[in-house]
Amino acid sequence: MSAPLHKARPAGQGRALPDTQQGMRRRNLSRVLHTVRDDGPLSRAAVASRIGLTRAAVSTLVDELIRTGLLEELGPERPGRVGRPGSALAVSGRGPAGIGAEVGVDHLAVCAVDLRGEVRARAVRHVPNRDRSAEPVLGELTELIHRVTAEAEGEGLWPAGLAVAVPGLVARDARTVVRAPNLGWLDTDLGALLPEKLPLTVANEANFGALAELWLGEDTPRDFLHVSAEIGIGAAVVVDGRVLHGNRGFAGELGHVPVWPDGPSCACGGRGCLEQYAGEEAVLRAAGLEPGEDRVGLLAGRAEQGDAAVRRALHDAGTALGIALTGAVNLLDPENVVLGGALSGLSPWLLPSLRSELARRTAGPSCPVSVSALGPQGPLLGAAHSVVRAVLDDPAAVAERG
Ligand SMILES: [Zn+2]
């Protein structure tokens, strides 16, 4: 029995398999599965020519993937082709599923994604979680997880793992929330409070949002900064297709980069942090509005109607984002910056000042800024897909567990 798939492994960090015969077999199983998923339906011969292995070797690997329910045969290919007809292979729509969950400041969400990348079940509950202790919040989340899992199981899927996106700092054990200021949680072990027997990965929502962008976005580069916001502002640094976690796992706290060193004090103990200018509540305050439930909807609606105070507040938030991002861009030289989460819904009013500030201040040529098409769905999808990716990267581990 191998170690559970995800435990103690930060999301998106594929484990290097040992360079032994066994390691080689596992790598080849993954190559076959990835190839069929990316280019399928494919015959065994087509898989063999794509990955440069013999047909016999591929057949053995394919048989194992069919036996463990990861691949399925669609029946004989159309007649009339040259050579012996082969059966077309596809990734199974009835195999393992990734369960993704999200704890937001005012919502909970869970979804199940199959190996093909399709969302097969989803549940969302709008509930104010701010300053609620972790036990009742995770109790409600567990209910949603059970509901989504049951729905997925009804379609012949089985949960391969659970990944939870949280708006806070997560320890390197990938299960302890060290600090989630907007929830009021400190040193909370989510593994102890989620009564699931599933392999668990907990990560910051910005990291899962960035992974979703990497895996599902159109033409996403392998080096980029992903910036997202809810109440707080988070960022993820993606280097060569991997999220940079930092020494303690806390990398990406763009929200607490000082924009104006003598600015308003912040919950982190600093002053003039980006969050004090570009977080949702800060923008509402600057626009003279009360923070309600649908903060982004309120701001976007008012901005669309031409509300001068809201537009000014968003312009200033864009400037603050540009200043904070200048530091990150100068330091890291990413290929681009992606605005995700709630920021994507406000981008028409944030982008002009953000871009001009960034262009004015960066040392090299200006770094392009784009807007995520996934929007607020990014973290939840990234969480579910991280489980799916782990199965695709090491399908043998699933067989050993099953
Ligand atoms: Zn701060």
UniProtKB/TrEMBL annotation:
GO molecular function: DNA-binding transcription factor activity
Pfam families in the cross-refs: MarR_2, ROK
Annotated region (Disordered), positions in chain: 1-26
Domain HTH marR-type stretches: 31-81
Annotated InterPro entries: ATPase_NBD (IPR043129), HTH_MarR-typ (IPR000835), ROK (IPR000600), WH-like_DNA-bd_sf (IPR036388), WH_DNA-bd_sf (IPR036390)
Highest taxon of source: Bacteria
UniProt xrefs under SUPFAM superfamilies: Actin-like ATPase domain, Winged helix' DNA-binding domain
Protein family: Belongs to the ROK (NagC/XylR) family.
The name this protein goes by in its record: Xylose repressor
Source organism: Streptomyces gancidicus BKS 13-15
